[in-house]
């Protein structure tokens, strides 16, 4: 799936269908840095199927900034050196595959 297609899919969700969250390390913010580096260096996102939906995981990137601007324009938690990831949980409607 292209980035544009994914963005359109996620941006078309309402607040009951999509939740955004900041993913951090448990005790030390740097605990997550290897995973942040991996996604950043690969210019990739993580995708995991979870019960009832799909979890997308993004490092700091233009795509994550666009998604945050669409749903939470008042939140500014990402910058190039932050050790965080953005999680986007897209919930499936009951009865959908």
From TrEMBL:
Protein name: SPOC domain-containing protein
Start and end residues of each SPOC domain: 1-93
Transmembrane segments annotated in the record for this chain: none
Compartments it resides in: Nucleus
One annotated GO molecular function: RNA binding
Entry keyword RNA-binding: yes
Keyword set includes RNA-binding: yes
PROSITE patterns xref list: SPOC
Pfam families found in the cross-reference section: SPOC
Key words of the record: Nucleus, RNA-binding
